[in-house]
Amino acid sequence: QQQVKQSPQSLIVQKGGISIINCAYENTAFDYFPWYQQFPGKGPALLIAIRPDVSEKKEGRFTISFNKSAKQFSLHIMDSQPGDSATYFCAASSGGGTYKYIFGTGTRLKVLA
Amino acid sequence: NAGVTQTPKFQVLKTGQSMTLQCAQDMNHEYMSWYRQDPGMGLRLIHYSVGAGITDQGEVPNGYNVSRSTTEDFPLRLLSAAPSQTSVYFCASQPGHNTGVGAFFGQGTRLTVV
Questions:
Q1: Does A100 touch chain B (CB under 8 A)?
Q2: Which residues contact B55 (CB under 8 A, 6 or more apart)?
Q3: What is the Cα–Cα distance from A74 to A35, expressed in whole angstroms?
Q4: Which residue of A has its CA nearest to B41?
Q5: A99 and B33: CB-CB below 8 Å?
Q6: Does A43 contact B44 at a Cβ distance shorter than 8 Å?
Q7: Mean pLDDT within A82-102
């Protein structure tokens, strides 16, 4: 019940295309859903996050779509760029965004120039 | 601002050796935590702290100890290293509960146990 399932494991997208990464969870107590971006040799960096009281959040080219009834959320990267090539992790936590995150297994995105 | 600083960046240990991974943050964050990252498994929580003097176990605590004597520092100790502890370790800090701000991660320590 504590798992966060992430797909796909890897993704190749052409420059200018849309990248979509999906996550699903079981624990209905989760109330904070961040996405992290990680470049090789670096620590994860917070990209965007959402709470379950909204169905969508957009920041620049990055959008989170959230479906509370289906217990699923996804990251959409519009106009994907080669600089977006990285590993993306979804995560979930309960208690108003605490330190105890459950992470997905990651998606390695490659954007072709 | 340095953010979250981890040392060392790389370490090779022999089985049975002990060592301490250092983590320091200069953002006056309440919460600090340690994760390990293994291929295909995402990040898993080892130990966490909600303030100086308070620590608790995460998902995979066995073989690790922590302490938090100051707000800034949160060292992770490996008592007797095992090959299964070969991993990349990340320290993270966060301002506090329900702040709407996610965790800040350090650059990681790549540990190999032979």
A1: yes
A2: B47, B48, B49, B66, B67, B68
A3: 9
A4: A105
A5: yes
A6: no
A7: 85
pLDDT of residue A98: 62
User: What gap in Å lies between CA A15 and CA A18, rounded to an integer?
Assistant: 9
A106–chain B Cβ distance below 8 A for any pair: yes
**Cβ neighbours of residue A104 under 8 Å, at least 6 residues apart?**
A4, A5, A6, A23, A89, A90, A91, B42
Interface contact A40, partner B, CB < 8 A? no
Contact call for A100 and B4, based on CB within 8 A? no
Query: Residue range A9-13: average pLDDT?
Result: 97
Smallest CA-to-CA distance from B94 within B4, B1, B2 is with B4
Alpha-carbon span B11 to B2, nearest angstrom: 22
Q: Does A105 touch chain B (CB under 8 A)?
A: yes
Instruction: Please tell me the total number of residues recorded for chain A in this structure.
Output: 113
Nearest to A46 among B35, B40, B102 (CB): B102
pLDDT digits (tens, 9 = 90+) for A17-70: 999 999 999 999 898 899 999 999 999 999 999 988 899 999 999 999 999 999
Please indicate whether, in this complex, the C-beta atoms of A89 and B42 are within 8 angstroms of each other: yes
CB distance from A21 to chain B under 8 Å? Answer: no
Cα angle, residue B97 at apex, residues B99 and B37 outer, rounded to 5°: 100
- Given an 8 Å threshold on Cβ–Cβ distance, is B45 in contact with A101? yes
- Decide if pLDDT at B68 tops 60: yes
Task: Give residue-wise pLDDT tens across range B7-35.
Answer: 999 999 999 999 999 999 999 999 999 99
Q: Looking at residue B41, what is its pLDDT?
A: 84
